[in-house]
UniProtKB/TrEMBL annotation, chain A:
<keyword id="KW-0812">Transmembrane</keyword>
<dbReference type="Pfam" id="PF12911">
    <property type="entry name" value="OppC_N"/>
</dbReference>
<feature type="transmembrane region" description="Helical">
    <location>
        <begin position="81"/>
        <end position="106"/>
    </location>
</feature>
<keyword id="KW-1003">Cell membrane</keyword>
<dbReference type="GO" id="GO:0015833">
    <property type="term" value="P:peptide transport"/>
</dbReference>
<keyword id="KW-0472">Membrane</keyword>
<feature type="domain" description="ABC transmembrane type-1">
    <location>
        <begin position="74"/>
        <end position="263"/>
    </location>
</feature>
<feature type="transmembrane region" description="Helical">
    <location>
        <begin position="187"/>
        <end position="220"/>
    </location>
</feature>
<dbReference type="Pfam" id="PF00528">
    <property type="entry name" value="BPD_transp_1"/>
</dbReference>
From TrEMBL, chain B:
<keyword id="KW-0472">Membrane</keyword>
<dbReference type="GO" id="GO:0005886">
    <property type="term" value="C:plasma membrane"/>
</dbReference>
<dbReference type="GO" id="GO:0016887">
    <property type="term" value="F:ATP hydrolysis activity"/>
</dbReference>
<dbReference type="GO" id="GO:0005524">
    <property type="term" value="F:ATP binding"/>
</dbReference>
<feature type="domain" description="ABC transporter">
    <location>
        <begin position="11"/>
        <end position="262"/>
    </location>
</feature>
<dbReference type="Pfam" id="PF08352">
    <property type="entry name" value="oligo_HPY"/>
</dbReference>
<dbReference type="InterPro" id="IPR050388">
    <property type="entry name" value="ABC_Ni/Peptide_Import"/>
</dbReference>
<keyword id="KW-0997">Cell inner membrane</keyword>
<keyword id="KW-1278">Translocase</keyword>
Length: 274, 559
């Protein structure tokens, strides 16, 4: 498809969101260049130091530089957000499209499966799957893919159900197009806008649950720098050294904020919620 | 019909200007429009979509549809006050109380979860400070006046329990509740069937006579104006091009645009330019043969309810010969669209047979469908919704050509260009997407897509209903030329009888899923045999004001 670029005034929300996420992505890519210290180097002489010129965000109970740990942590957390959204999005889109398009038995079976998954609380199901697979990032991604696709499937299915009766879909059938052509070339491109918007807010949820799971000791293992672990580790020292918890916590909030701004702007541009 | 009282007009608009502020600066949507409305007068505001006629009325009550719009000049004086400079609070008191509004789509302007009677009483309690009991009594009185047959019971009904025509009556009742001086009716009958339209128009005229109400009637249908209005104002591209008493204006239009508008009105009066009947051809096999077709949809009666079904098409038999042009007319719900879809294998057949070129769709479904997909095509009602918004027109056409495989791949771009020329579209538009085109252009693209199949049969389902009158006339002309120059069989479905009369040789009248009458167009329209057909024809608003509208009594046809 050739998209003639329309001169359109830039959406300020989109620009701001992209700037925030882009900043974190840049930090993650250039971590070895910009981080002032090694994120796992323990300096016994500099424990629990408050923010200063030498350590802008202070140091933790092992004397590690918090700023460096946050910069390196961006690598892990961004990866979690992207992979944790990508697989559910793809799986959910395919399953939802098939259920909506074919209807009948296919639809009934897939929808009951979704009901079963939704019957469990999200985190409980995630934790059980990770507990079975063993702690670690790859278990987290697998659990996310197994559980997270249901919302995408329901979104796409609802869209396809509406669109398959639209005149252009009927027209496509009446012109002798094959089922897969009608579904993948005509219906799917017109139904993904809502999911793309949702996947931005979903990235926020993934980020938070990733942090929560690391916090519970089932995700990223120490001493790897990850914001969720950093929050967990700092908790014990909250009364003496607030900076250990505050800065990684703020990073999570900012990145989440960036994603949700992109989601909002996309929704506006694509006319999902007019 | 009463004549407008001479003297000072009730509402006097001078030099009303509305602009839209965009990225490229200001653009005028209404430029210096001046109009008067007398007491008890019905003023028809005519123009195509985008001409600014709705905007004009909305700016009178300060209900502009977007914040990018602003009134930048002019006055609208009513009872010594300039409406345009009223504060929001003063305007709030005036809206509804002095100026009532009704809209095209009554279902989207009535609150679906509020009883109809309460919606009428609400205005009475707010503006006229009536108590609950008094408001209810008054609301029932108003409902009686607008033609509810059992207002005491219908007071407690919800909007979805009513038909479109009754909902429009409810809207009118809501608007009348506060006894306004002016009623603004924005395309009040466009979404309604022709017989219901006639009833609503009759009601508006009665209300004018009884209450001395002044009405601004916005419409694109010159027939409606000719039948109901005292004066006509024609708008185009934000400007008032012409206004005057209706007889003068219709008989002697001054502005070329008004002349074009009148010329493109498909009046029933004008004899259809049908060619002399073709010499009797040797008996041929019908291209499409429908035999006692039933299409039923299940209506679920709840978990334990009995399974019932609704017959959209109930026993239709029809033969269509190659080269014929057949019109199918009927009101909404008559089953004409379902019939069209069933003909092309797009709706399930419950009973009966559909045969295409001798092959039955029920006996040899796959083979017949395969054949049909390569020899028949459909044109749809909504020009935007029938094209994939993500593909350019060129891509849409090229895809059809590729899938059908009748044209060599290398020749596809040339064929796309040829198709666009065939439907009189500039081939330069091939790179545009549907949203960058007008409704008429989109419909042409939809026809080009149908022609890409090189069909023997085209089924056009209400394909001009969503278009402006002048565009309608162009599309109908296009069809006529295509049928004349190509070996095409056309099934043209419409609720507009006048258009069918212009285009088709044979007409089929449907009602409640059955064919009530069929025959040569000229004959059916001149001498309808069935009362239903006669009522349909009589309800069409003629552009000649001296051929009065004949409104069938409410409920007579829907029984």
């Amino acid at each position: 498809m050739s998209a003639p670029a329309l001169p359109r005034p830039l959406n300020p929300t989109l620009v701001a969101g992209l700037a925030i996420v882009g900043l974190f992505a840049l930090a993650a890519l250039a971590a070895p260049l910009i981080a002032p210290a090694d994120p796992i180097y323990q300096d016994a002489a500099a424990r629990l130091q408050a923010p200063s010129l030498a350590h802008p965000f202070g140091t933790d109970n092992f004397g590690r530089d918090i700023l460096s740990r946050i910069i390196y942590g961006a690598r892990v957390d961004l990866q979690m957000a992207v992979i944790g959204v990508f697989f559910p999005l793809v799986i959910g889109t395919v399953i939802g499209a098939l259920a909506g398009f074919f209807g009948g038995l296919v639809d009934a079976v897939l929808m009951r499966l979704i009901d079963i998954i939704l019957a469990f609380p999200f985190l409980v199901l995630m934790l059980s799957i990770i507990a079975i697979l063993g702690p670690g990032l790859s278990s987290f991604y697998i659990a996310m893919a197994l559980v997270g696709w249901v919302s995408y499937a329901r979104l796409i299915r609802a869209q396809i159900l509406v669109l398959k009766n639209a005149d252009y879909a009927v027209a496509a059938v009446s012109l002798g197009f094959s089922r897969s052509r009608v579904l993948f070339r005509h219906l799917l491109p017109n139904s993904v806008a809502g999911s793309l918007v949702f996947c931005m807010s979903d990235a926020v949820l993934v980020l938070l649950s990733g942090a929560a799971i690391s916090y519970l000791g089932l995700g990223v293992q120490p001493p790897t720098a990850e914001w969720g672990i950093m929050v967990a580790e700092g908790q014990a020292f909250l009364s003496q050294a607030w900076w250990i918890t505050l800065f990684p916590g703020l990073s999570i909030v900012f990145l989440a904020f960036g994603f949700s701004m992109i989601g909002d702007a996309l929704g506006e541009i694509m006319g999902v919620h007019e | 019909m009463s004549t407008p009282t001479p003297g000072a007009p009730l509402l006097s608009v001078r030099d009303l200007t509305v602009v839209v502020r965009g990225a490229q600066g200001q653009r005028a949507l209404l430029s210096r429009v001046s109009l008067d409305l007398g007491k008890g007068e019905i003023l028809g505001l005519v123009g195509e979509s985008g001409s600014g006629k709705s905007l004009f009325c909305r700016s009178l009550v300060q209900l502009l549809p977007s914040r990018a719009l602003a009134v930048t000049g002019g006055t609208a004086v009513m009872a010594g006050r300039d409406l345009l400079s009223l504060s929001e609070a003063d305007m709030g008191a005036l809206r509804g109380a002095k100026i009532g509004m009704i809209f095209q789509n009554p279902s989207s302007h009535l609150d679906p979860v509020m009883r109809v009677g309460d919606q009428i009483a609400e205005g009475l309690m707010f503006h006229r400070k009536l108590g609950r009991k008094a408001a209810k009594a008054e609301a029932i009185a108003i409902m009686t006046q607008v033609g509810f047959t059992d207002p005491a019971r219908q007071f407690a009904s919800y909007p979805h329990e009513f038909s479109g025509g009754m909902r429009q009556r409810a809207m009118i009742a809501v608007a009348l509740a506060c006894d306004p001086d002016i009623l603004i009716a924005d395309e009040p009958t466009t979404a309604l069937d022709v017989t219901i339209q006639a009833q609503i128009l009759k009601l508006l005229m009665d209300l004018r006579d009884q209450r001395g109400l002044s009405i601004i009637l916005i419409t694109h249908d010159l027939g409606v104006v000719a039948q109901t209005c005292d004066r006509i104002a024609v708008m185009r591209q934000g400007e008032l091009v012409e206004q005057g008493p209706k007889r003068d204006l219709l008989a002697r239009p001054q502005h070329p645009y008004t002349q074009a508008l009148i010329a493109s009105h498909p009046s029933m009066d004008e004899a259809a330019p049908t060619e002399p009947p073709a010499p009797p051809a040797p008996p041929r096999r019908p291209l499409m043969e429908i035999d006692d077709l039933h299409v039923r949809y299940p209506v679920s009666g709840g978990l334990f309810g009995r399974r019932r079904s609704f017959s959209a098409v109930a026993g239709v038999s029809l033969r269509i010969m190659p080269g014929e042009t057949v019109g199918i007319v009927g009101e909404s719900g008559s089953g004409k669209s379902t019939l069209a879809r069933a003909m092309l294998g797009l709706a399930p057949i419950s009973d009966g047979h559909v045969s295409f070129d001798g092959d039955s769709l029920r006996l040899k479904r796959d083979a017949t469908l395969a054949k049909m997909r390569r020899q028949a095509a459909m044109v749809f009602q909504d020009p935007f919704n029938s094209l994939n918004a993500r593909l350019t027109i060129g891509e849409t056409l090229a895809e059809v050509l590729r899938v059908q495989g009748k044209v060599a791949r290398a020749a596809i771009p040339a064929r796309v260009e040829e198709l666009l020329r065939l439907v009189e579209l500039d081939p330069g538009l091939a790179g545009r997407r549907p949203r960058q085109l007008s409704g008429g252009q989109c419909q042409r693209a939809g026809i080009a897509r149908a022609l890409a199949v090189e069909p023997r049969l085209i089924v056009a389902d209400e394909c001009v209903a969503a278009l402006d009158v002048t565009i309608q006339a162009q599309i109908v002309d296009l069809f006529r030329r295509l049928v004349a120059t190509m070996d095409l069989t056309l099934v043209f479905i419409a609720h507009d009888l006048a258009i069918v009369r212009h285009l088709c040789e044979r007409v089929v009248v449907m009602h409640h899923g059955r064919i009530v009458e069929e025959g040569a167009c000229a004959e059916v329209f001149e001498h309808p045999r069935e009362a239903y057909t006669a009522a349909l024809i009589a309800a069409i608003p003629d552009i000649d004001p001296d051929r009065p509208l004949h409104a069938p009594p409410a409920g007579a046809l829907t029984a």
